[in-house]
Amino acid sequence: MRLALLAIALSLASLASGQDGDLAAPVWVAQKAMTTAFRFSVLTTAIDDSLAPVGLRMYDRRTGRLVQEVLGIDGLDVRRRADGLVRLVDANFDGHPDIELAIDRGGVGPNNTSHFYLYSPATQRFEIKAMLSALTQVRINRDRTISAFARGGCCNPVADLLRPAVRTLAAAVQMAA
Q: d(Cα 25, Cα 33) in Å, to the nearest integer?
């Protein structure tokens, strides 16, 4: 009986402290990817053998000053190195590096997702673009097209190829966001 009460007390103490055994305390991890102007850090929580990105910071690479922070990212199950969650792409083909942040590996299938933050030279900030972030398995291709793939079951593959006009893609992405 005392052993059972002790186990209940320990369980309640664990719940009260926010620790459930599967989640690790969030930690900021410096990313390998960086631009000439920015370096990045991702707030991650470990879940079993994968990561859950929950925050993103952008720092001025020259001064080290924090210039932008995004919190509340609903990252799920990413199986990548902790320092490799940010990938730089030119998602709107404007010549400025944009951020692709891995947020979910897609479960058993290939439906991995990322959040895309496009750099705005006017504001000098990265802005999330909902249209790109809603697609699965996005590829920014060298021929200035964007591919997206998904699987809705074992026999239901889906593939899309966006062929935007180079001059209008930035406007199209902004309108869709």
A: 24
Q: 58-67, pLDDT tens digit by residue? A: 999 999 999 9
| Distance separating alpha carbons of residues 103 and 110, to the nearest angstrom | 13
pTM: 0.75
Please give the Cα distance from 50 to 33 (Å, whole number).
20
Across the strands, what pairs with 43?
28, 55
